């Protein structure tokens, strides 16, 4: 509840594409999300899809004065059939109507259909927070039409909600426009949900089981009704309670629904409790020893994590679940109640814990230890942080109200700069210009003149040109990403016309001050900016054996050095692998113009052909938009000697917990940390091979994340504020 002394921070419209009269994952999420948003000092307008026939699911919202529930058929009474649902078009129309009357700050909607329709209205651009859960499974290829629709949703969205790291990875890979926008909002469980006090351990050979949720073919609920009878044949007594009243139709098996109804009412050892409120269902479930969330094999590649599984864990009810990546990450490799899609695997797992009370207790403890991250209070904190981050007001107000213009030849690596400029000054325009500028001078001059502040990201060729065309009253800022590459343009430019210089590396600032006669107050140091909060993601198992390289071309990297290091690592442990993320040589258009690079690649490929065992441990991977996802599997990143601009991707890797190694040279330790430089390839191989213990690598990974904090977006805020305003 929002107290009268706490002002409402925002108005949120919340919609979920589910029937509030039925108990299933979509309605549980909808009510939980309304509770969470209410605790973020938001006023929540909850639009329903169905007429309210039963208030069981809405009971947790009673008494919350900052939650308004909108029944779409209120006042129509019996004129509306109980099963009447709004269509997608109807929902979109109602949201537009509500928004025109109340003007919401955020529109949070769950379901592909409604998110797609809201994006098409163009009414909610920059306010839409879509939650698209019905994604194609990883093994299924999405249609071009679906990808276009997802791209349109992403372009309209301010943020995109995803349930797990896997779903964020999928979204960033399939929908490039979503990169930088995806916020992981996990399933949530009540803060006070815990086990039944004083419950005694079951006798050997006897168990109480529970299933709660919808009855559906892929959810194996029909087969589950066989389990008590089949276990009885093995001498194990299982009493199984089944909770829920949503029995789904099966298009594939038309008789399935009738068979399900018969099985749940007639199977030996099965009690059907029917539909219960969420609180009653959890109270009922607490009396069980094990809880079932058994699925068909086709669902093993799901991006989602079941709320019901988390509830079982919190109640000390050991869940019986398929062995999928999300469950292994939650419960650990050695959890004893992992099953596959076969009935025999379920019978074997349940029999094991039924005959071994200590094993059952271990499973219960693993489950209860796994769920603090999913408590509602922690979820409130994460959602509130995401909301406030999207609402941050600019730090400074620029004179004249004119925008900032960020100019560069290739701004693909300047996302962090754009973000920190937006946080600092608000209105930021981006201009990617042809480096030649031929035939474009007037158009570029008009674009330049409209800005109050111009930030030049690529000194050559734009900085000299801009210093000769700077209009009166404009402020010109040179962003020096690497002094060695930018110095020729700086010497050609009219330095007196440049109001501020922002250096990514402190040694560059000092070297510039020594070489050029520029007042010290115009020189600023702001580290290469990285959105560390967005990039900080859990690593995947085995990452300490995976070495990464970000470039293949010798002008930017030394992959031959990485291959040599791999040979040494494989001699120490055959689990190591090398992952090169770049376009392949024959895909590079200008390769034919460079004989040295062609010779280099020929030598590299010939060497690998002669060493098939080494070549088999090298993966060449394309540079897509989902770089943070790639970092999750990489443990070590080999960075070549510093030639050219600082690469913000390296600091982004550290934010993901990747450990950086680079040749020893002046300034390397300042850039990447004291443990990053190595003196020889033998030293590099030894340092990596000696750090494969998970606990040891975890320390190094944590130190990398800490190091990346120096490049967080906020770290350079003061320097950029001074550069943009001169104050």
């Amino acid at each position: 509840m929002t107290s009268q002394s706490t002002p409402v921070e925002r108005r949120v419209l919340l919609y979920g594409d589910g029937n509030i009269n039925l108990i299933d994952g979509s309605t549980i999420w909808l009510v939980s999300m309304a509770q969470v948003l209410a605790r973020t000092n938001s006023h929540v307008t909850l639009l329903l899809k169905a007429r309210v026939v039963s208030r069981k699911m809405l009971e947790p919202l009673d008494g919350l004065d900052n939650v308004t529930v909108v029944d779409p058929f209120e006042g129509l009474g019996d004129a509306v059939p109980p099963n009447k649902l709004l269509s997608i078009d109807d929902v979109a129309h109602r949201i537009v109507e509500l928004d025109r009357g109340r003007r919401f700050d955020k529109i949070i909607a769950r379901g592909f259909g409604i998110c797609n329709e809201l994006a098409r209205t163009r009414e909610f651009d920059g306010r839409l927070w879509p939650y698209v859960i019905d994604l194609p499974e990883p093994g299924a290829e999405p249609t071009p039409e679906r990808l276009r629709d997802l791209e349109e949703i992403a372009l309209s969205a301010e943020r995109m909600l995803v349930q797990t790291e896997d779903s964020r990875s999928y979204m960033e890979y399939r929908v490039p426009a979503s990169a930088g926008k995806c916020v992981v909002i996990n399933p949530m469980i009540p803060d006070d949900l815990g086990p039944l006090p004083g419950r005694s351990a079951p006798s050997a050979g006897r168990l109480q089981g529970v299933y709660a949720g919808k009855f559906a073919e892929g959810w194996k609920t029909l087969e589950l009704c066989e389990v008590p009878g089949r276990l009885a044949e093995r001498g194990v007594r299982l009493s199984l309670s089944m909770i829920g009243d949503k029995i789904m139709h099966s298009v594939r098996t038309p008789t399935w629904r009738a068979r399900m109804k018969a099985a749940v009412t007639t199977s030996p050892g099965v009690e059907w409790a029917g539909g219960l409120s969420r609180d009653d269902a959890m109270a009922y479930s607490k009396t069980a020893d094990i809880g079932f969330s058994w699925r068909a094999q086709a669902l093993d590649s799901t991006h989602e994590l079941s709320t019901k599984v988390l509830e079982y864990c919190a109640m000390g009810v050991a869940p019986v679940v398929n062995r999928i990546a999300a469950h292994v990450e939650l419960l650990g490799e050695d959890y004893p109640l992992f099953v596959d899609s076969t009935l025999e695997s379920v019978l074997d797992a349940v029999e094991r814990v039924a005959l071994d009370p200590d094993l059952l207790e271990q499973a219960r403890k693993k489950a209860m230890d796994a769920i603090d991250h999913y408590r509602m209070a922690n979820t409130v904190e994460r959602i509130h942080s995401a909301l406030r981050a999207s609402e941050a007001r600019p730090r400074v107000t620029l004179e004249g109200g004119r925008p900032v213009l960020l100019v560069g030849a290739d701004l693909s690596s300047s996302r962090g700069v754009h973000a920190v400029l937006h946080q600092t000054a608000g209105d930021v325009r981006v201009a990617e210009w042809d480096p030649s500028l031929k035939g474009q001078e007037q158009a570029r001059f008009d674009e330049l003149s409209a800005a109050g502040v111009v930030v030049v990201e690529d000194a050559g060729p734009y900085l000299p040109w801009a210093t000769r065309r700077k209009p009166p009253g404009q402020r010109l800022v040179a962003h020096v990403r690497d002094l060695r590459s930018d110095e020729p343009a700086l010497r050609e430019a009219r330095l007196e016309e440049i109001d501020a210089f922002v250096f990514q590396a402190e040694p560059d600032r000092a070297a510039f001050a020594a070489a050029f006669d520029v007042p010290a107050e115009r020189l600023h140091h702001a580290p290469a900016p990285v959105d560390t909060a967005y990039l900080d993601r859990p690593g995947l198992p085995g990452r300490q054996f995976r070495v990464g390289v970000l470039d293949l071309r010798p002008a930017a990297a030394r992959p031959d050095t990485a291959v040599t290091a791999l040979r040494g690592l494989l001699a120490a442990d055959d689990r190591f692998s090398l992952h090169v993320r770049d376009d392949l040589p024959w895909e590079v258009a200008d390769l034919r113009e460079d004989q040295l690079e062609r010779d280099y690649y020929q030598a590299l490929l010939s060497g690998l052909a002669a060493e098939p065992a080494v070549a088999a441990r090298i993966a060449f991977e394309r540079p897509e938009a989902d770089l943070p996802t790639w970092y999750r599997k990489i443990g070590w990143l080999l960075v070549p000697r510093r030639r050219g601009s600082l690469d913000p991707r390296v600091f982004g890797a550290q934010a993901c917990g990747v450990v950086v190694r680079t040749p020893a040279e002046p300034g390397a330790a300042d850039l990447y940390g004291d443990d990053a430089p190595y003196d020889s390839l033998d030293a590099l191989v030894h340092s990596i091979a000696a750090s494969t213990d998970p606990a040891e690598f975890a320390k190094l990974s944590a130190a990398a994340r800490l190091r990346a904090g120096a490049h967080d977006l906020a770290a350079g805020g003061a320097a950029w504020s001074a550069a943009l305003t001169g104050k």
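DSSP finds 29 helices and 25 strands in the chain. The first strand starts at residue 10 and ends at 16.
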